[in-house]
């Protein structure tokens, strides 16, 4: 073997991993390794390039395109005249690609203590990695290694899948043109968000799921309501199994088995949104003595340390929560623990919220009612409809609600679930209350709630809790 360059620190992955380095690391000799994500092998990880940021730029555009639907119930007649897809796509990626490129330039050219390796890294020994760069393989080692290598879409083993063209979230946002009909496989976050994006932009959407509900990990009331509303907007086919897929003209034909027997569906574009898996296999973590769970997630302790000396992990590669705000939180924990090994801090995963930016929107934090039952927790619930608050009247909303779970004796919130307009924003005071331990009564009556604004949904839900 040739020369092995040794560093103080190696960081694999430039999603949340990229944020570790600040001026406090100026005298550390650091290697950053990035293979690139998406069809343009971009720098900066999933969220920026093929995840949160572009999807939400498309979601906002889709919400605007959907205005005729909400206008109709208000007596305002609007018409969607034209969707200029190439212009929308190029606006989104014109901005994102520039940010990714300048992020890379900054690390490569303006950080004298950082060496950027562009290529796939793989462990060859504990804290030693080989990187496949364009100029050939090179080996690096370090005293400390941070694994922030994220995950990638899972492709289910459907007979014929290798012979047809399909998309994942990595490629579908850069489509050349909008198809007339898109088949979306999977009813999770990604399926629900893209179904909204593409249908609002005029694409006919067929959504296929294995279970009887869309977003089935949400609180059952929320998931049932969302499933009802999804079926009104999209050709929703639940309780289905894919038995095969083949080319049909320039598109695909998918064969399914379902409640009514065998059926098939044809579409121009197939989007596979059936979950993601961690990239630990690409790293050959076994060579480095790093323990992984059965699902491939790297095992970490509460300070984000792996089972191997001097190796930390954060974000999608190790976390049960595949969410950017969690990856960022864990990144700050790793950053602190690298700088202050004698005073390590722990990650806080008690109240991790999430949101689904579909139509309608959903936001959630804490226990669902099903989890409360399973855990034998004593709880009470309250549900407040948007239709029962002044701003909900203004919007003529008839389907949205907030559902709270609380401990009846202390009044402390156990969970909050909102489905409806601006749910990801409206839920924030509930997240705050849970994190800081504010009980429902003090929260409802201990502050002003702007009238007649949307957070009155939260105020009324809190007042509805039948506490002891
Ligand atoms: C379509 C979509 C929408 C999403 N929307 C949201 C949202 O609205 N809100 C939210 O909170 N979360 C969202 N997420 C999830 C969020 O994007 C992830 O949780 C987050 O980006 C994870 O960050 P990370 O740093 O762990 O990994 P990543 O950002 O994936 O970074 C890992 C990096 O490591 C690189 N890499 C991997 N293996 C190697 C290797 N062996 N050698 C070199 N480099 C390697 C990869 O190329 C990648 O750049 C979304 C995800 C998707 C796919
Ligand atoms: N707004 C957000 O925060 C946001 C948005 C998108 C993605 N994400 C993150 O990315 C992760 C991955 O998203 P996702 O939607 O791919 O995963 P997911 O786990 O949310 O949903 C995948 C769905 O596909 C189903 N499935 C699996 N195999 C299937 C098959 N063969 N046929 C049909 N359905 C099948 C699963 O049962 C599941 O319902 C999410 O869990 C989330 O953490 C977050």
From TrEMBL:
Tree of life domain: Bacteria
GO molecular function, one term: oxidoreductase activity, acting on a sulfur group of donors, NAD(P) as acceptor
Positions of the Pyridine nucleotide-disulphide oxidoreductase dimerisation domain: 352-461
Residues where FAD binds: 56, 316
Catalytic-site annotation from UniProt: 451 (proton acceptor)
Cofactor requirements of the protein: FAD
Keyword annotations from UniProtKB, A to Z: Disulfide bond, FAD, Flavoprotein, NAD, NADP, Nucleotide-binding, Oxidoreductase, Redox-active center
Record InterPro entries: FAD/NAD-bd_sf (IPR036188), FAD/NAD-binding_dom (IPR023753), FAD/NAD-linked_Rdtase_dimer_sf (IPR016156), Mycothione_reductase (IPR017817), Pyr_nuc-diS_OxRdtase (IPR001100), Pyr_nucl-diS_OxRdtase_dimer (IPR004099), Pyr_OxRdtase_I_AS (IPR012999)
Cofactor binding notes: Binds 1 FAD per subunit.
PROSITE patterns from the UniProt entry: PYRIDINE_REDOX_1 (PS00076)
Residues annotated for NAD(+) binding in this entry: 186-193, 275
S-S bridge residues: 47-52
Keyword Flavoprotein found: yes
Residue intervals of the FAD/NAD(P)-binding domain: 7-327
PANTHER family xrefs: GLUTATHIONE REDUCTASE (NADPH) (PTHR43014:SF5), MERCURIC REDUCTASE (PTHR43014)
Family: Belongs to the class-I pyridine nucleotide-disulfide oxidoreductase family.
Name of the featured protein: Mycothione reductase
Organism in which the protein naturally occurs: Actinopolyspora xinjiangensis
